[in-house]
Every structure is written in structure tokens, then in C-alpha cells.
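Structure record:
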Amino acid sequence: MTSQNLKLALAELHARAVSTGTISDSHRRVLRQALSSPDLADDKRVAIDRLLVAVADCANFTDDSSSVAC
């Protein structure tokens, strides 16, 4: 995935997570790929880390392993 495509994928992921309150398996794959990218800027890495912490906090309140809702 190119840097521009990754940036667009992260923007889409953020918008869907905010609008739906969920993170799907495909969202998780995008996050995993983004975090392994050497081109990921520090501010984007921090934003992803914050999103993952928020999702982890929400995961304590749901039993559905395929999608995490807050």
C-alpha cells in the first residue's frame, strides 16, 4: 500500500469508527499494516495508538470478537 493510499485508508477508518462506533476486522488489518509501515509519521502513529487504546477500553464491555462497539 502506498503512503497516499495508507493515508486515505486511515482517514476512512477514522470516519467509519467515529460514525459507527465500531472497528471491524478489516479496520484492524488496515491498522496493523499502517503500524508496520516505515513511512508512517509519528503523529499518525500516536493517533492510531490512541484509537487502539479507546477500542481496548470498549472491548471490556462487549462479547462480540468480530466488531468492537463503544
